[in-house]
Amino acid sequence: MEDTIIQVRNLSKDYGHGRGIFDINLNIEKGKVYGYVGTNGSGKTTTIRNMMGFIKPDRGNVTIQGLDSWKDATEIKKSVSYVPGEIAFPSLATGTDFLKLQADYLGIHDLTYMNHIISMLQLDPTANLKRMSKGMKQKTAITAALMGDKDLLILDEPTTGLDPLMRDSFIELIREEKEKGRTIFMSSHIFEEIEHICDQVAMIKDGRIVDTIDLWSLRHWKTKIFDIRFKGLDDYKKFLAKFHQIKDTDEDELLCQVEMPVSEIEQLFYVLKKFSVASIKEEHITLEQYFRKVYEKGRG
Ligand SMILES: Nc1ncnc2c1ncn2[C@@H]1O[C@H](COP(=O)(O)OP(=O)(O)OP(=O)(O)O)[C@@H](O)[C@H]1O
């Protein structure tokens, strides 16, 4: 496909005892932010380390802009900005020393954008590299990756050490990168963050992709859920007897939750005309709820 920047085909790395990754297939399109979610040990890092050419797959392959991740690993590393899951810095005194070294390596002379990232993430780069907290290390690694002028960013759980405020700043930085036309592939186990940033998401479980979803289709989900609160017990009970698409109820709160296809919403409002309704609220299905359903289906 013309717009595909990363193509993962039947990628497998078998560590034995059911551990590893098995027949992973992914297409990451140019200019998209692609999320990779999964529980601990599901295979996110193994997939990413294959993408970056750090490990040789047992079967299948990854191509990035036509280059094979394993055979052309040196080229791949030069053309991708990468934040590893486990951050290890070279033996340098401070974060500033590391970032300067990185800027020299990347041939960056104007440090304006680097300083913008530092200020967005409220990083004190003068700190001792070895004594940095996990969050500080992560901020330093994000700065080092984002300051390079590369078209593709591969980020392995870049926000696990960040507090919620810094996560928001990170989301903003990723949006800026997307606006520049960059492609971003990032793993995370924080659904909310993925939901805010990503265009597409794949979910991995026990080393296999269980589902991929376009966030647009989630936002325009084909079924709707409404919480309807009635003014009186009589109306609440009559509605329960009359309407059949009830998902949940709470008699103390006079609350009914209904779930129905978008095409049937009119019918709900038609029925409700005859009732005294105190409030009605639409519940949006979250990425977490969606994947929980997929996850549970896979288990059953
Ligand atoms: N070098 C290795 N040797 C043996 N087993 C490995 C190796 N690397 C990973 N594994 C196993 O493969 C599975 C997937 O690990 P991986 O690190 O890819 O998961 P992950 O989704 O990134 O997890 P986390 O969210 O905890 O970082 C795990 O069961 C892990 O123990």
TrEMBL record:
Pfam families given in the database record: ABC_tran (PF00005)
InterPro entries registered for this protein in UniProt: AAA+_ATPase, ABC_transporter-like_ATP-bd, ABC_transporter_ATP-binding, P-loop_NTPase
MF-aspect GO terms: ATP binding; ATP hydrolysis activity
Alphabetized UniProt keyword annotations: ATP-binding, Nucleotide-binding, Transport
UniProt superkingdom: Bacteria
ABC transporter domain segment(s): 6-231
SMART domains linked: AAA
Family from the record: Belongs to the ABC transporter superfamily.
Name of the protein described by the UniProt record: ATP-binding cassette domain-containing protein
Organism annotation: Blautia liquoris
